[in-house]
Design a protein that fits this description.
With 534 residues, the protein is α+β, with helices and mostly antiparallel strands. 74% of the residues lie in helices and 7% in strands. The chain is elongated.
Length: 534
């Protein structure tokens, strides 16, 4: 609870999560109301077609949306996408009310989805930027998942109630207002200015997220699990509709109730995830989440009874919350900040493609297997995958707790700001905290260079050839020139007041600077600037 309070006490994070709450309400509600509309038009097959048409174009648009999230103000990307979705969903409400062709409603649904492809990449990239510590980052992701689950519940109930008492067109109209609220809230976020791209060619920059994932085995594994998760979830989305209407015989409102149970389970799962993340059990959360998301769903097909189905859907929600929070946090820890939007965009691209294909496969399984066996087969996919990958997942477990002051100090340096969160955490763990009395010469000109220093508290003076060149205080650093250029120290640094400083070993500093092109360029710029001032 302390972690969650910390995240929500951050006003910028709170506004970002508020915008997501409205967006998620609209997104989940739109998925459900479109499924109900499609089923009324042509049964289970039409539901599968609706999922395919709604999601497939977004798979093509997702890389472009992710690039927008890294190239332009993420605040404006969120606000613009929310406004576009509000207008398109309102148009869908008018089309349904006027009895427009099924194809027109599907086209509007596809455009609505395309307008939202940049939302999650922009949000995923903004959360680490706005978070003040690793704990706050993890807590924000828990809030993200919790809000998603609450929105799922609210969207399910809203659509179920409106469909029953006012009709589907009113439900579409209500969701348009939710998207409008998301746009308004996003507009209250602070202005952000992403750094200029390192790539100059549009095609090269567009594929940067895919190349980043391809180059890192850990990211490839996470993206693979995420894709399988999305594929199975889409199958479940279709089969829940069929199960409620054909297997359990609980009607259209029953679809909303089963989805609401899924969302309520997600809220409970977020509480479990908070405890696991606080103990660094990311891999265990991902493994347990996959198992719990699948097996209970399979049991719905085995029991074919309403009360057990309600309980099983609650457990499915717990499982998906665990896997989603662990996967998101691991991705944010492993990907560099300036490409994180595009890395998440890779996941979104594959999510859209897997969702489109999964919905179609789920609908097609009903014919040859029947409703019950289609549900059983769908439910066992993720548990089998989790067992097969358990050994590799264990490599993701987090290490010792990071000192937040050290993490914040290192992350605030331009030299390290583009590095992945996990790398900065590792640097913070390796850094030695040194305390120097006033008058101490921390480094001496001409001596061999061994470390890089970041001042946490106090003031130092920098002397070159006996002449005072400058003073440095908290948040500034020294010792980088000799490490980067080789050779002896180029200056003497003396403590004016008692000084507390972080010291990074030569190898740790050079490895981190060389890990990212933007860090390398920033370091070279500092060296050139300081040598020119001599």
């Amino acid at each position: 609870m302390a972690a969650l309070r910390s995240a929500l006490a951050n006003r910028d994070l709170a506004r970002l999560l508020g915008a997501f709450a409205a967006s998620a309400l609209g997104t989940w509600g739109f998925m459900i109301v479109l499924s109900l509309y499609a089923y009324a038009q042509g049964g289970a097959g039409a539901v599968g077609v609706a999922v395919l048409v709604r999601m497939a174009p977004s798979a093509i648009a997702a890389p472009y949306g992710a690039m927008l999230a890294d190239r332009y103000s993420r605040k404006r990307v969120l606000a613009g996408g929310g406004l576009a979705r509000a207008l398109l969903t309102g148009a869908a409400a008018v089309a349904v009310a006027s009895g427009a062709p099924f194809a027109l409603v599907l086209a509007l649904a596809a455009l609505t989805n395309i307008a939202g492809v940049a939302h999650k990449p922009a949000q995923a990239a903004l959360i680490p930027q706005l978070s003040r510590s690793p704990l706050e980052l993890a807590a924000a992701n828990v809030c993200w998942s919790t809000i998603d689950s609450v929105a799922f519940v609210a969207g399910s109930l809203l659509v179920g109630i409106l469909a029953a008492i006012a009709g589907l067109e009113v439900a579409f109209g209500a969701l348009a207002l939710a998207f409008l609220a998301a746009a308004v809230l996003a507009g209250t976020l602070p202005d952000d200015h992403p750094p200029p791209p390192l790539e100059t060619r549009a095609t090269t920059e567009l594929t940067l997220g895919f190349r980043t994932v391809q180059a890192h085995p850990e990211l490839r594994l996470l993206v693979g699990i995420f894709t399988a998760d999305a594929f199975v979830q889409s199958m479940m989305d279709v089969l829940i509709v069929v199960a409620a209407l054909d297997l359990l015989d609980i009607g259209q409102s029953g679809v909303g109730w089963l989805n609401a149970c899924w969302g309520l389970g997600g809220i409970a799962g977020a509480a479990v995830a908070t405890a696991m993340l606080g103990r660094g059990r990311l891999a265990w959360g991902l493994f347990a989440g996959c198992v719990l998301a699948g097996l209970p769903f399979a049991l719905i097909g085995v029991t074919a009874a309403t009360v057990p189905a309600v309980i099983f859907m609650l457990v499915v929600g717990i499982g998906y919350a665990l896997s989603e929070i662990a996967s998101l946090t691991l991705t944010q820890r492993l990907a560099a900040g300036d490409v994180l939007g595009r890395v998440y965009g890779v996941e979104e691209t594959l999510y859209v493609a897997a969702t489109a294909l999964g919905g179609l496969v789920g609908a097609l399984l009903v014919g040859p297997l029947g409703v019950r066996w289609a549900i059983v087969v769908t439910g066992i996919v993720l548990p089998v995958l989790a067992v097969a990958l358990r050994a590799r997942l264990s490599e993701f477990e987090a290490g010792a707790e990071v000192r937040e002051e050290s993490f914040g100090l290192l992350r605030g340096l331009a030299l390290f700001s583009s590095l992945p969160v996990a790398m900065i955490e590792n640097l913070a763990l390796r850094a030695q905290l040194g305390r120097f009395a006033a008058g101490t010469e921390i480094i001496v000109q001409g001596d061999e260079s061994h470390g890089f220093y970041v001042i946490e508290d106090g003031t130092v003076e920098v002397y070159i050839d006996g002449a005072l060149r400058r003073e440095e205080g908290a948040g500034e650093y020294f010792g980088e020139i000799a490490l980067l250029r080789g050779g002896p120290r180029t200056a003497t640094v003396r403590a004016v007041t008692p000084v507390t400083a972080l010291a990074l070993a030569r190898e740790d500093f050079l490895d981190s600077i060389g890990a990212h092109a933007r860090s390398t360029r920033a370091a070279e710029a500092v060296v050139v600037e300081r040598l020119a001032a001599v």
